[in-house]
Amino acid sequence: MPIPDHPLYGCDAITLLTVLARNGGPRGRGWPTALAALASALGRAPFSLAEAGWVAARRRTSAGLPPPVFILGHWRSGTTHLYNVLSRDPQFGIIDPFAVGLPWDMLGLGSVLRPLLARALPERRYIDNVPVKADSPQEDEIALANMSPVSFYHGLYFPERFDENLRRGLYFDGCTAAEREAWKRRFLYFLEKVSIAQGGRCILLKNPVYSARVAMMREIWPDARFIHIHRDPRAVFVSTVGFYRTLLARLALQPHEHIDVERVVLDHYPRIMQALIDDTADLPANRFAEVPFERFERAPLEEAERLYQTLELPGFAAARPAFEGYLGAVSGYAKNRHRLSDEGRERVDREWAPFVARWGAGVA
């Protein structure tokens, strides 16, 4: 039986076939899912082509995308909580679940099927207890994995080449210049459609992958603003290990037991976070702001106001009631509890020493 609601069901046929060929195809239970994804892609192809033609015609008479506001930070650092709060400000456009699930068809077929898709949404995210609703803001990486062979999610789907897909999808390691440019074109096409769906508002983007790509985002939008939320690296480590294990068990179309998830997290966190530090070092104060997760969790309204003031964003007072309403609605949220072993703590303290000193518990 196919895996229910696998993200690849929103892929296009060319991307899917490219990914299958590059990664050796699925194994065992993965075949029904891959065939279902291919059937979905072929069935949607006429609608996807029609939508692409409509967007291209519209592009000739429309203005370009305004610079987004990016939320940066490693996975499990509080990026989702910050995104959920700030997205309540009506000045921002968001990536909604329908754009993620059907990135090729969000404006046409996706709009028609929206009531049906809304009923099919999972009650909560795979990796934690965060509710998923029709207006819940989402990160765009799953959408981009459905549009490009370059995404770390392909390592989760096809873990026999896990490390290769991670390095390509996080840092473009091993990618040709043409592959890099193709990813950028798909990224901008996706955001162009999101902008149409969101009425041309400034898009609020949250994707931990962009923590390693600030330089590229600045090339595209020299005036973009960035918010970095950071958390005690020890908590990030144990929660990210859980993140990978949960998604591999849920989404992998090949065996994944060979992956040393702890080693993966230990190796990639320093590279991602050092890239973020290096690529934001010369940004002025009104273009880059940081907030510790621990402080945002304790005083979200005060910290949100500080972020607006630092980045010279308008509209905090007008958005405050919406922030308060959302925070009141999630006040009983129960976080997943992950216990870090003494050995794990020692490894993190040793291998991530500069980041523990910078962002560890008690520093903020």
TrEMBL record:
Pfam families per record: Sulfotransfer_3
TM stretches of this protein: none
Molecular-function GO term, any one: transferase activity
Gene3D superfamilies tied to this protein: P-loop containing nucleotide triphosphate hydrolases (3.40.50.300)
InterPro entries: P-loop_NTPase, Stf3_sulfotransferase
SUPFAM superfamilies, sorted: P-loop containing nucleoside triphosphate hydrolases (SSF52540)
Keyword Transferase found: yes
Record's keyword terms, sorted: Plasmid, Transferase
Keyword Transferase belongs to the record: yes
Classification via PANTHER family: OMEGA-HYDROXY-BETA-DIHYDROMENAQUINONE-9 SULFOTRANSFERASE STF3, PAPS-DEPENDENT SULFOTRANSFERASE STF3
Protein name from the UniProt record: Sulfotransferase
Organism (species): Azospirillum brasilense
